[in-house]
Amino acid sequence: MKVLEDRVAIVTGAGQGVGRGIAIALASAGASVVVTGRTESKCIVVAAEIEAAGGNALALPCDVKDAEQIDLCVAATLERFGRIDIMVNNAQEVPRGMLLDVTDDEYRAGWESGPLATFRFMRACHPHLRSGGVIINLGSRAGVKPHPVGAGAYAAIKEDTRALTRAAAVEWAADGIRVYAILPLSNSPALERLEVDEPAVYERVLSEIPMRRFGDPVRDIGQVAVFLCSDAAGYLTGITIPVDGGAAHIG
Q: How many domains is the chain partitioned into structurally?
């Protein structure tokens, strides 16, 4: 039996990049996956990929900045699958630029799509995750290393998400819910744009990875998510795992 057989997962921002990789990996391990994101067409493509490989998926559009849409996503998941076992909070708008240049609206959009959406999804899923459920929240190495320059607002927002992760791990352990943070560094549409637009920055980031490569969203990031959601990680909670080829140096 696959390690996540009969479990149901919601993955936000799953239409591309890390979210897509985690969704595909969870499905390959046997989970039914709700593929959700702002762009429905992208979610449909990923859900079709999962089903073509023999998995079970449901594509749902959801703007995580809208509390009502979050509630509708949770309700639609329960209507289709009858349960929720795994919640992966990956969606995030990224405020870029020096602190003096980032606008209130840009910062607000980052906070609403990241920590606030994570907070809302966690609370909405809490009753259904009791006795064995798992939450994975996506952080960033930018939050633990003040680099690169121009990522300060993004780093602050991601550290807010990690603070929520630690608090929920402590408060909800008695409910049988495990909560983790992953700091991924993998190939993504954003990195592809960076390679074209700012090749020097791209090469600098790559040079800071001891393994000298960016991770694969499915094999590297997704498989860590599978492990954390499995029974093998049953005595772990509240931890942050940098899945970044050694770049963050958390120890």
A: 1
